[in-house]
Write a structure and sequence with these properties.
Order of helices and strands: EHEHEEEHEHEHEEEEHEHHEE
Strand order of the largest sheet: 2-1-3-6-7
Structural class: alpha/beta
Helix content: 40-55%
Oligomer: single chain
Strand content: 25-35%
Largest sheet: 5 strands, parallel
Distance between the termini: 31 Å
Shape: elongated
Number of helices: 8
């Protein structure tokens, strides 16, 4: 993370709480903990938070009923931990105001990765975009989602424009497929990268045919780099 983030872990199992505390702390987070809803309420009022990990099974109340209360205090993303396998139970958590859930038992590295993805998206949404972004001969109209090369419309589809906008803001920087998918498709990459490959291929062809002077380099195992030829 580019700066230290603050997370609240709400979990009544001390072994799980200790393990999650350790992994997030080693990942650069400032970590606060609560073992029940009463402690969680105090933390919510005391600490500005960037993310919340909420166990849905707690000793002093229904955590699903607690989610709207969290939402009345903070917009920090909420990742819910659940042993519930019923689809309706999981949907109830999302409808109550949670952002995502992960089913126990879970991979702790996946838990950290999902939290980091949420924080990245929240940060990008919080940034006020420029109405226009100029990158060499390319002008991106961020309001209309249109890109032009020397005044000619590139005729980009939605995901193509989103990719070009992200690439232009991160020129000459290698961007992994995982990062692109999390930001553009707003989901963790689940293994199938066909959507990314197809969108990048179409964007590369349009960069070439419009004689933009830019290309997207493919680094096997690393990602994509937007750079001038």
């Amino acid at each position: 993370m580019d700066k230290r983030k603050t997370i609240l872990l709400i979990e009544d199992n001390p072994d799980i709480l200790w393990a999650n505390h350790a992994i997030f702390q080693s990942g650069g987070f400032t970590v606060f903990t609560a073992e029940n809803l009463a402690e969680a309420r105090c933390r919510l009022l005391q600490e500005p938070l960037d993310a919340i990990v909420l166990d849905l099974i707690l000793p002093d109340g229904n955590a699903l009923d607690f989610v709207p209360e969290i939402r009345s205090i903070t917009t920090a993303p909420i990742l819910m931990l659940t042993a519930l396998t019923d689809k309706d139970d999981r949907l109830a958590g999302l409808q109550a105001g949670g952002d995502d859930y992960i089913t126990k038992p879970y991979d702790i590295e996946e838990l950290v990765a999902r939290v980091q993805a949420f924080i990245r998206r929240e940060r990008l949404h919080a940034e006020k975009p420029l109405e226009k972004l100029v990158c060499g001969p390319i002008i991106l109209d961020v309001v209309a989602n249109q890109a032009y090369v020397n005044g000619k419309n590139m005729q980009l589809a939605g995901k193509e424009f989103a990719l070009l906008h992200l690439f232009a803001r991160n020129r000459d920087t290698v961007m992994s497929k995982e990062t692109l998918y999390e930001i553009i498709w707003k989901l963790p990459l689940a293994g199938d990268d066909t959507a990314i490959k197809n969108s990048v291929y179409r964007l590369r062809k349009k960069l070439e045919t419009t004689q933009s002077g830019f290309d997207i380099l493919v680094s096997r195992g690393e990602g994509y780099t937007f750079t001038d030829k």
